[in-house]
Every structure is written in C-alpha cells, then in structure tokens.
Design goal:
The structure is a single chain. By secondary structure, this protein is α+β, with helices and mostly antiparallel strands. The chain folds into 3 domains: about 70 residues, Arc Repressor Mutant, subunit A; about 100 residues, 3-Layer(aba) Sandwich (D-Maltodextrin-Binding Protein, domain 2), CATH 3.40.190.10; about 110 residues, D-Maltodextrin-Binding Protein, domain 2. Helices cover about 40% and strands about 20% of the residues. It is built from 9 helices and 15 strands. The strands form 5 sheets. Strands 4-3-5-15-6 form a 5-stranded mixed β-sheet, with helices on one face. Strands 7, 12, 13 and 14 form a 4-stranded antiparallel β-sheet that branches. The protein is elongated, with a radius of gyration of 24 Å.
Length: about 300
C-alpha cells in the first residue's frame, strides 16, 4: 500500500504542477486514462478530492494544495540526496530547469551550456526562453537569468556574463535621408523601431547616460516588435533607428549594413546574472552548473 500511495502521490504532483492530465501524461510517458485512474484511486483511499477538474484545466483543491506544500519539499530533499549519492560514485546527474530572456539565452547561456552538457551527459537541462519576468518559484524553475538590476533582493545572484551596452544604429539608407541625432532628445523627430515590454505591455523607453546625466526617451515609429531578430532586420532594412545590444550587431556594423549613432551617450552596464531563491539548498548538479556559467574576467 505504501508503494502504491507513494507512486500515485508523485503522479498527483506532476498533474497539479502541469494543471493538465494531457501535459502530465506526456511528461510521464503514460496514458491519460491510466493517470486519471491512479489519481482517482489515491483520492478514494484518502477519502477526499485532491483535484478540481473542468473541461479546460485541472487545479488542486484546498486539501490538494496542502498536500503539495507538505510533500514537494520532502521529495526535493530526497532527489537532492539521491543526486549526492550518485555524485559520490563519480557521476553527476539530475534535471535542471532554467528561465532566460532571448538575448541572455543566445549570447551567454547556450554557448556555455554546450560545453557543460558535453562534460556531464547525465545532467539534463531545460532552457525556457521567455522575455517576460518569470516567477521562478511559482513556475518550478531552479534558476532564472536576467540583468542584475532586474533581480529581487531576496535572491542569490551569480554573475555569468560580461558588461553589456545598448547602442543606437541605423542603415546607411535611412541616415542618408534623416540627419544623425546629436543628443538623445533628437530621437523624437526620428522614425524608431519600438520594443514592447513583455511584462507590463508598455513600450521600452530608450535609456542613455553621459557625464553622470541619465535620460530616458520615448520614441515613435512605424514598427514595433517584441523579439530581437526582427528589430535588427528592420534596422538593416531602413525602417528607422533601433536600440540594440552591441554584441548582436557586430557583423552588421563591420559590413556597413548598420551605422552607430549617439556613441558617447551609450555606457556599459553590468550584464547577466543567474539567480535562485536563497532558501533553496541546491543539488550537486546545480552547483556544477553555477560554476560552469560563472563569469570569469
């Protein structure tokens, strides 16, 4: 009975986390009917309903939430202990979930992960790319990657990337029609390629600094994107000026497809950090990942 209860509790936790029998069944590699039967059996033995089922989704009941709060930390402790024991045998293993923005994932995380994954074939990493500010605790991530200024103070942060700089660029064709701006305020008379912020839904105000003076400028233009690749292409195609991470347009600057303006108003700032809750005791696999991603000058 103990083994059956334990197995079914694990299944319940996956369903509750995914909020879907379909997603949970796919993740576990079992049929939906078998999964539903197991959960119903658990509820029957406990004589209480753990999940509320609707035609669209599944959600834990109040009792289900209490069971999750009680068991998840204990199961996490068991997983950490198993991974520690495995490591004693000379093999690092485990599953790690990371959340990162588009630029961080491409410029910093994935290049380092390729080396890390080759060194530790028994460690599985899921990298979810999302420009929104994900709640890593609620969404069951082990860690997130964001700019240092965006990280809550109650998190542990480890620097994983070099200093960054946002620069303003435009195509030769565009700048042949419109005089290059001398100061950030001149941007208000230019066509600019806007970026919509994923979390608030508002437009990104371009940020500048010179001689200790900081300035934010709201820009206007014909096109707005929420991804980096399209903003670069729009700038190269002459749709206006764009504010972009400098490292993403090095090839276009070198080839002459893009020209930089307002250089002296674009300072460097601290780059990306990996962050995680300070109350979490991380696994050996996660500790290895931290050291692999850590920025070294």
């Amino acid at each position: 009975m103990l083994k059956k209860n334990f197995n079914d509790v694990v299944l319940f936790l996956v369903v509750a986390r995914e909020r879907s029998f379909t997603k949970a069944a796919a993740k576990l590699g079992v049929s939906q009917s078998a999964l539903s039967h197991a959960i119903k059996g658990l509820e029957s033995r406990m004589n209480m309903r753990l999940l509320t089922r609707t035609t669209r989704n599944v959600a834990p009941t109040e009792v289900g939430e209490k069971l999750i709060a009680s068991l998840e930390p204990r199961l996490a402790d068991i997983e950490r202990e198993l991974e520690a024991i495995t490591r004693l045998n000379g093999i690092a293993a485990g599953n790690i979930r990371l959340s990162a923005g588009e630029h961080a994932a491409r410029a910093v995380v994935w290049p380092k992960l390729k080396t890390f994954l080759a060194l530790y074939p028994e460690i599985n990493v899921e990298l979810v790319v999302d420009n929104a500010f994900t709640n890593i605790v609620d969404d069951q991530f082990d860690a997130g990657i964001r700019l240092g200024e965006s990280i809550a103070r109650d998190m542990i942060a480890v620097r994983i990337g070099p200093d960054l700089r946002m620069i303003v660029v435009g195509s030769p064709d565009y700048l042949s029609k419109y005089p290059a701006p001398d100061v950030p305020g001149d941007l208000q008379s230019h066509r600019c390629i806007n970026m919509r912020l994923p979390t608030t839904g508002g437009m990104y105000h371009w940020e500048f600094e010179k001689d200790g003076k900081k300035m934010k400028v709201k820009v206007d233009g014909q096109v707005t994107f929420n991804h980096l690749v399209e903003r670069i292409d729009a700038a190269v195609s002459g749709f206006g000026l764009a504010c972009l991470p400098e490292d993403t347009v090095q090839a276009q600057l070198k080839s002459g497809e893009l020209i930089q303006v307002l250089d002296d108003w674009c300072p460097f700032f601290p780059g990306y950090y990996l962050y995680y809750p300070n109350r979490e005791q991380h696994t050996p696999a996660f500790a290895l990942l931290i050291e692999s991603l850590r920025h070294r000058v």
